[in-house]
Write a structure and sequence with these properties.
By secondary structure, the chain is an all-beta fold. Helices cover about 0% and strands about 45% of the residues. The chain folds into four domains: about 30-190, Methylamine Dehydrogenase, Chain H; about 205-320, TolB, C-terminal domain (Neuraminidase, 6 Propeller), CATH 2.120.10; about 325-595, Methylamine Dehydrogenase, Chain H, CATH 2.130.10.10; about 610-700, Immunoglobulin-like, CATH 2.60.40.2550. The protein is built from no helices and 63 strands.
Length: about 700
Amino acid sequence: MKTYILVISVFVLTGSVFGQTGWNWENPVPQNNLGYWSSYFLNDNTGFISRGPVKKTTDGGSTWTDQNPSFTGKCIMFSSVSTGYLCGDNGLVAKTTDGGASWLALNPGTSYSLEWLYCLSDNVCIIVGWHSQGSGGIINKTTDGGATWATKLSISNYIFSVSFPDANTGYASGSHGTMYKTTNSGESWVQQTTGTVESFNAIKFINDNTGYTVGSNSMVMRTTDGGSNWVNKSIPYSCTVLSDLCFTTALTGFVVGASCADQSLFSTTDGGDSWNIVIPMVLSYGGNSLFFSSANTGFMGDESRLLKTTNAGQNWFIPSALTNNHLNSVVFTDINNGYIAGASGLILTTSNSGANWSKINTPTTSDLYNIYFPVPATGFAAGSSGVILKTINSGLNWSISASGVNNDITSLYFSDVNTGYASGSQGMILKTTNSGANWVQSNPVTSNKLNCITFTGTSIGLCCGVNGTILKTTNSGVSWITINAGVSGNINTAQFIDANTAFLCGDNGLTLRSTNSGSNWGSLNINYNHSVKSLYFVNSTTGIFVFDNGAIMKTTNAGTSFYSVASPTQYGLNSLFMVNALTGFSAGAYGTILKTTNGGETLPLGIQQNNEIADEFSLSQNYPNPFNPNTVIKFQVASYKFVKLTVYDVVGREVATLVNQHMQPGSYSVDWDGTNYPSGVYFYRLESGDYTRTMKMVLIK
């Protein structure tokens, strides 16, 4: 029995208007930055993902290749090995006849948001959808392979899903308890009574009589008489939305949901009479699609990634991930060479700026919480139960550096290759002066767990932790004193940005700044009630902050104000390292690795950020000039402001707007294509705050 997938799209981000994205996935892949998706597998090895764009695997999800960047759909289905269809927003329907290698757009006769499709053969397909302006739902059908489509049902309620247990009998479900049935292959539809006004997001039939539908507010309903009667079999857990379901036998099935109070995947072994939680903490932010290619092998999509099971749903993993371990700390010694430490003694390394990562053998299975390289060849990693590892050959080999303690070590800092510090549980602070050959414990000042340690120069340092603990040394760690900042929240991360200025961040958006080397602290309003796990200032004014829910924020005025930047994940980010003002990496839960090459900002299509520091607003002469048909305009932004770059013709009419948004400080270039404009003199104007400048360019064809 084949199963088919529905994806309900709540929020959709389109990538077509953006050029450089802010943060991109490094691991695991593929990642679906556009939100919801569906998958379809021809067998345990060969399958497709419908969104972001269409991707194909032939090895069970370990590797993926893009099939057609032009299409990104909500639902995908193959009627045979060669022939497949996908549907999506704005009336998108596309078809392949070569196993997904190429796709051709079809005209389904509607601009509705098409949520689901079901193909009875290569030529006969049903699509269902809804109109965002409240025009209701439709069912369209083709009998000639998508060449023409006819509307078979149009109603005021939305239609989200369709399922056929055989070639003649089918069911469609939607908003407000909507349920329709056909017995003639979708030519006509008869409304059924469900006894509920809850919305149905997915429907599946396992035979002619028995079917299930799931929807809002934990709703699961079952019929055993071909839809004449529906019985409530809702899961006993609080979920805002149940998105999809799949049965592998007559009695064994799964339901996946989003915004669940407990977890997001549930199973039954008695046909839905009872439901149990399957997996804790894997789908932390909800799931939306299910597909089983066989009784044991299944695939499940969540907000951003595809999970797989090979033991009938008992356990799930990310098949394409280098690792599924939590990653706790990332560091780079230059633009190319970097390291990540994580759970179970994991250390990853890259020599090509994150394009590829490799696992390194280590002599421990303890969780590693921090990694630090004082020089490119020599590095240290530390973690649970007092473990400290050391490498002297750029991470190729690691050995134990005996710490002499059993405390968890959460943070490392080295002022040079010989002098280093470690902090951890129960107020422990260690110091080495011989590159880790020996570690000496300082007299304890607190019993609180210490999460971070940092220095400015060789003498002044800060150590911070739970319950608002802040310790300061002015004598290279010989002694520490307690600093009262008037806060009680946990502090997770700290950084000096110069000899006087330091930042501390922690739970519930706690953000503190000191301008006297940590003796006094003022609270900053980051206006975001999640835990900051790591921060990194690239200069005296620009800092980036990552959070336990995958959010990323930024300041360009030393903490006077903060703003959010786009993040492709909702999994927790534990560590951040910026190689320079533009290039940086973040690592976190479930093997997540992100990279930015433009300071974390998302730029419109055609705009590039350059590796130059801007200390003033400026507009440069375009090059080439004269030009035909393309030219490049360079400009600089000195502070975070709204920027507008406009092109005018010789009589002053606005002909193009190249930039129209807030931008961070930096140097930029933007292309202007004059293909569709006549030869002549044009003017381009940069406006930002009080700054305005206009320059002339000449288009000659």
